[in-house]
Each structure stands twice: as structure tokens, then as C-alpha cells.
Amino acid sequence: MTATETDRALVDRVAKGDRAAVRLLFMRHHARVYRFVARQTGSEMMADDIANEVFLELWRQAPGFEGRSEVSTWLLGIARFKALSSLRKKKEDWIDDEAAAAVPDSADTPEVVTMKEDKAAALRRFVDALPEEHRTVIDLAYYHGQSVGEIGEVLGIPVATVKTRMFYARKKLGEALKAAGYDRGWP
């Protein structure tokens, strides 16, 4: 019986509630998990806590283990996820109120938000007023994120035709925005 088969058999036993199997897997894999997490986090204390959490997670997730990977790989995957989560949380905890207050607020003012909403609504009305061949190209490009080549495939037209329609549609939209008193920038 190989070590891999033994590990999988132990996970099967853990899934059935066998605490001794968890202890055996802990003895077999704890050092590797600990070293991995210590390298990921740079903290021995954090590594010790996370390594212990990995084996608690083993206890919880053992019934769902499908054996698509080695048990050691599965445990390291759990460890990696927990290490990244802890590092993220540590970074979030690190910012104090004074530092947070010093972070500049780049959010738009209520006036700018209203101006953007008005312009977006006007732009949507202008797009809706375009001839269908231009409206479709603009809709696919800007509202559905399609590339020129993809638009050509969807519509069954050459790329050059897509580009021509896009050019005229943009020109008409620019003229409509200017006539309505909107400048071309945002908001």
C-alpha cells in the first residue's frame, strides 16, 4: 500500500468521523503545510494558526474530498487559500482611522454623478434614435463589449463595414450630444 493510498484511506476514515485518522494526517502533513504557509505569510505565528485551521478544514471537508488530487496537494490548496485570506484581512486591519481619514476621496460629487446620469440617459436616447445598422454596431461594441471582428461575425458583415458603420454612428452621436449641449468629455 503506497503513502497516497494510505492518505486517501485516512481521508475516507476522517469523513466517517475517525479522529485518529485526522491525527495521523496531521502528523504526516503538518510540517509541510506549516513551512508552506510560513513562506507565504512570512510569519511563523500566522503559519502555526493557519496550519491548525487547515486540519480543522480537513475535518469539515473530508466527506466532499473526491480524490482528484493527492491529499497533500489538497491540503496545500486549503492552506494557500487560508494564507491569502489572512494576509488580506491583516492588510485591512492594519489601516487605522487616522490613516483612513487621510486617504483622498476620489468619488464623484453628487453634482457630477447627476451630470453623468443625465448624459448617459441622453446618450442612450441618441443611440436608440440611430438607424438600426448603426445602433446595432454601437450596442454590440459599447454595451456588450464585442470587438470589431466579433461584431462582424455576429452581423455577418465584413470588418471594414463594421468600422464604417462605427465611424458614422460615432459621428452622429457626437453631433447629437453637441446639439443637446453636452461636451464630448465625461461627465
Automatic annotation (TrEMBL):
InterPro entries linked to this entry:
RNA_pol_sigma-70-like, RNA_pol_sigma-70_dom, RNA_pol_sigma70_r2, RNA_pol_sigma70_r4_t2, RNA_pol_sigma_r2, RNA_pol_sigma_r3/r4-like, WH-like_DNA-bd_sf
Query: Which key words tag this protein in UniProt?
Result: Sigma factor, Transcription, Transcription regulation
GO biological process annotation, one example: DNA-templated transcription initiation
What the entry lists under Pfam families is as follows: Sigma70_r2 (PF04542), Sigma70_r4_2 (PF08281)
| Protein's UniProt keywords contain RNA-binding | no
Any keyword Transcription regulation?
Answer: yes
Instruction: Using the record's annotation, list all stretches that form the RNA polymerase sigma-70 region domain.
Output: 25-91
* An example molecular function term from Gene Ontology annotations: sigma factor activity
Q: Which domain of life is it from?
A: Bacteria
Domain RNA polymerase sigma factor 70 region 4 type span(s) in chain numbering: 122-173
What family does the database annotate? Belongs to the sigma-70 factor family. ECF subfamily.
PANTHER family xrefs: BLR3042 PROTEIN, RNA POLYMERASE ECF-TYPE SIGMA FACTO
- Please give the name of this protein: RNA polymerase subunit sigma
Organism the protein comes from:
Mesorhizobium kowhaii
